[in-house]
Amino acid sequence: MGKKLVILSFVMAIILSLSVVGLNFYNSNNANIKASISVAESISKLVISSLNTFNSNKNIHDSKEFLNSLSTLKGINNLWLVKSESLNKSDINNQKQIKDEIDKKVLSTGLVQYKLDNSFSKTTMRISIPYYINIENGNSCINCINISKEHKLAAISLNLDLIETQALSSKLIYVLSFFIFITILTIIYLSSNIIKSYYNLFDVFNNSIKESSTGNFALIAKPKNLNNEMNLLVDRYNDFMSILKNAFIDIDKRLQGFIGNKTTTNIINPLEESKEIVLNLSNLYQFKKEIELDNNKEEIYDRLSQIFINQFNIESFSFIEIDASKHKMSIVKEVGKTLYCQEFIHENPELCRCARTKNDVVSIDYHNSCPYFKEEDNYHYCTNVDISKDVNLVINFVCKTTTELEKLKDKISFVKSYINEAAPSIEVKLLMDALQESAFRDGLTGLYNRKFLDEHSKKLIPYAKRAKINIGVLLLDMDHFKAVNDEYGHDVGDTVLKELARIMTENVRESDIVIRYGGEEFIILLVGVNTEEDAINVAKKIGKKVRENEIDVYAGNKLKKTISIGLSMFPADTTSLDSAIKNADIALYEAKNSGRDKVVRFKEEQVSSVDLF
Prior knowledge:
Elements: H1 2-56, H2 62-71, E1 76-83, H3 101-109, E2 113-118, E3 123-134, E4 140-141, E5 151-161, H4 163-212, H5 228-259, H6 270-291, H7 297-310, E6 317-323, E7 328-335, H8 342-345, H9 353-357, E8 361-362, E9 379-386, E10 391-399, H10 402-410, H11 412-439, H12 450-467, E11 471-478, H13 481-488, H14 490-506, E12 513-518, E13 521-527, H15 532-548, E14 551-552, E15 558-559, E16 563-570, H16 577-593, E17 599-601, H17 605-612
Parallel strand pairs: 16-17
Antiparallel strand pairs: 1-5, 2-3, 3-4, 3-5, 6-7, 6-10, 8-9, 9-10, 11-13, 11-16, 12-13, 14-15
Helix pairs in contact: 1-2, 1-4, 5-6, 6-11, 7-11, 13-14
Catalytic activity: 2 GTP = 3',3'-c-di-GMP + 2 diphosphate
Keywords: Membrane, Transmembrane, Transmembrane helix
Enzyme class: transferase
């Protein structure tokens, strides 16, 4: 910076000196021109006055010697008179012929005309001064006030030598320029130490600010030769940097407490990192407020998916709920192509390494971190969250490249902060689902209860009408069930009902609904069954399985039971589910009345027989 300062000061001195010289030269040149014109006008007035005298004394021929004598004066190289064409025939004042363009121009315009001729060694001025001649009396004047027709235009032309004036001006300019240059250098020299101190301090501040922008809030050392004001400024700056450093260290620690420990050793700008953390915390707060208003866990998973896609630019991931108590894995949501391990852990969810170890499982080089991720062209990152005592949430991220995987590792703390924030809300939704499920379940058999039938039918029937599908309504009743309770006790009776529930569940589709209607009565809704023959076949199959099933009673004794089944078809028999159940009940009565252990299809004529009974 010192060399730059010296060079800059020297250049500034030269520029300033040249500017002053140029300005002085311009002013001097203008002054010389004005002075030369004034001299020429004075000479012209002298010439005209003398010529008028010669003219009045009738000594016109003596004017030639007078003009020649003037031409020999110092500073005048030549002098002559010119006249307009109207005066060419007369010999007034002995005018000569026009010599150049300046003579022509002054005679045509009546104005002073001049031209400078500058060279390295001398400067000359070619100038012509106009004047008017009175034809009648021969008198002449310059700048005559009243010009009549008798006046004709002429001019006095001179060649003036300005070399002395030029030399004097040049000396003055050179002396002045040298004096200005020396003065500027002296001022710069005397103030260089002060300026250098300011520039050194500027460099120190500049470097310190650059370092602080990367998170390095180091104190600066005081340069030499600082005055009291500069020392005070440095002290204040160091105090400010200390406060800033302590504040950012505290902020960084507190912010890291929100998102957990860093997962990367990459050196990044802590200020930018803090800014990113604050931004994510703000977004996380908004996310938390929104999920509290979501109706169910599916909405929470959808919202979490939008965060992964829009905020973190993650393209492929899936949410998997693993219920250890039920030995069940459920894919809640999948975005992109994921779960390359599904074929291995679907039936055996306990094989999932992430859920089992409750640690992150990430693709690594040279060997497989997860034995069931067989995809060689992709990479995975799995993380686990405990939703409840029995339910684990596993998020499976799949990356196409190692670069994409590294980026995910860098931001996984932020990603987990959203997952951890969502976990309590998901647990609440699961608990609410469980409570709702328990309210709709029969405590003994685990089947849906009559309350569920009432609620579910509100959605099922409109759907069936829109989709134009059939529903087979089976109403089942255990034959002679009261005798079981009376002979073997209620414990055995409960076992018989549980076995019946198991057989019904195992012999219907997942889309079908099995309901404990009350006591030993059950309803099966065969949703989307093709024909009544298919419904009858399902009923007969269940009846056969019940008939063949042996139930342990006590002391090696076995018990076999039978069931009676009534069948009604919706909407073939009626457009109301309640009516369909009543029709199935009428058919069930017919089955019991006609010998039990059979399936009876509802018919219209059965209504009258029931009424008569």
